[in-house]
Amino acid sequence: MVKKILSSSLSAVVLAGLLTGCGADSQTSGNAEQKPNDPSPQNEKPASSNSNSNPNEGNESKFEEMKIVFGHVQAGSEDSYLHQGSMKFKELVEKATNGKVTVEIHPAGELGGEREMMEGVQLGTVDMMLASTGPLGNFTPIANAFDFPFLFRDREHAYKVLDGEIGDEIGNELGKSGLKVLAWAENGFRNITNNDHPIKKPEDLNGLKIRTMENKIHMESFLAFGASPTPMSFTELFTSMQQGVVDGQENPLGVIISSKFYEVQKYLSLTGHFYNPALFIITKTKFDSFTPELQQVLLDSAAKARDYQREFISSKEQENLELAKKEGMEVTDKEDVDYDAFLKASQKVYQKYDSEYGDILRRIQAVK
Questions:
Q1: Does residue 235 carry a pLDDT above 60?
Q2: Where in the chain is the domain with CATH 3.40.190.170?
Q3: What is the per-residue pLDDT across 212-224, written as a single tens digit (0 to 9) for each?
Q4: Global pTM?
Q5: In b/e form, how buried is each residue of 5-17, taking b as 16+ CB within 10 angstroms?
Q6: What CATH number was assigned to the domain covering residues 191-273+325-366?
Q7: H/E/C letters for each residue in 118-155?
Q8: Does domain 65-188+275-319 have CATH number 3.40.50.880?
Q9: Cα(first)–Cα(last) distance of the chain, in Å?
Q10: I need a surface site. Which of 44, 49, 122, 304 has the fewest CB within 10 A?
């Protein structure tokens, strides 16, 4: 894994307010042609009243030539959620600026794991990323509020929270840490895989080493479920499961499939224990240095890419489940999971963090 940094030879360009990056990513440059037709955007939240206009229309001089180095940790494939959201953002930005602003996508952790890459965005050594919320609490503790088990009733509930007042509040807090949120996207409901036996109730996790993200709420939740949580970078996960360092992991179904975890995991349980947002983030000082026209392009493109990515995930759900079964995974369906037992175990986590997160969690649960 090679971590790219902004070239010092382009420092003059950086001081002029331009984003810079390293050489073109040949692995992903052709994927824009492989994406499915755009679904009709749902729940679009324009950044302003004129967000549907093309800010570059009739005036190419509004934009200087620049490159945005953009990373994520998932595979650079046509069935990868984060990659497809990233590629849609690239397409929209380059179209809106008539190619003056290019977006260079680095998938599969080429720029580091999520926490490492997020630190790079904070410092400005990585321009942008599309990330899960797992590491966010290390930068702004209130962001952990989105990671409590069984918090969101369904996707529509999550979208209303993320695209509304609460999402804006947490985005503003992240801005104080140097991370500008352009839009909240989706990673999805997380499910458990392992190599030992089906997981139907918390007791089935007793003694199993389950890889989690580097997130204190996730780790506390799996402790409450009876597992031994083992945080590690996503980029290390496949090999760790292959070598038996961990017994299993938990991720959205699309991540499990696009990462080919079925090659090293036998059992899949559709627990849906966490809803995991994702987010488009950019170095705040860089964003603030851009012209209002470019800021608007980035905000609008992220909002449209968010809607595209959410619809993409929803449209692939059944196909991914069928592929998991076809590849030999033994699936425990939702109706066979003892949700009451998992909910009861989860209360330990809510009680432990009530003084820190209780107010915002109750506000999230109250959103209709």
A1: yes
A2: 65-188+275-319, 191-273+325-366
A3: 998 999 999 999 9
A4: 0.81
A5: ebeeebeebbeee
A6: 3.40.190.170
A7: HHHHHHCCCCEEEEECCCHHHCCHHHHHHHCCCCCCCH
A8: no
A9: 43
A10: 49
